[in-house]
Write a structure and sequence with these properties.
145 residues, alpha+beta, Immunoglobulin-like, 2 helices, 8 strands, rod-shaped
């Protein structure tokens, strides 16, 4: 059994460093639509860092973070052409880079946006029109023997 353990441990040593540690950067909302905005926060950067920036392939441009106490924060605009899927945010500062993740394409991480309301309104309006049309067919013309 120990003969099988050595290759597993060796493989894990090569794979685990490639997995980003996403505990250092928080991105909210966790899911956003292309063209939307996200808030980036981290407490991993040193308070004396001269500048802190965040980048992601989904961002329209880099985001400059500002410090409040020991927390660095900022907002980033997503490109309207961002591909859907899981995206990584890289925060560059002294002691970094640090990473965080969010999802592009689902939207509604904080409320769902407008689309569910629009679809619900269309469904209610369609149901009201169908009921009115059915009542009208039943009422007119009256055919009594």
């Amino acid at each position: 059994m120990s003969g099988y353990l050595a290759p597993v441990v060796l493989a894990a040593a090569f794979v685990l460093p490639a997995i980003p540690d996403t505990r250092h950067v928080t991105v909210t909302p966790i899911s956003a639509v292309p063209g939307g905005t996200v808030r980036i926060t981290t407490s991993s950067c040193a308070s004396g860092a001269p500048s802190v920036t965040a980048t992601s392939p989904a961002f329209a441009s880099y985001a400059a973070l500002t410090r409040s106490g020991s927390i660095w924060y900022g907002t980033a605009q997503l490109s309207p052409y961002s591909a859907k899927g899981l995206k990584t945010v890289y925060v560059y500062c002294a002691g970094g880079p640090f990473t965080g993740e969010f999802i592009v394409g689902l939207g509604g991480g904080e409320g769902g946006g407008r689309m569910p309301w629009v679809l619900g309104a269309i469904a209610v309006l369609g149901a009201a029109v169908a009921v009115a049309a059915r009542r009208r067919r039943m009422r007119w013309p009256r055919r009594f023997p």
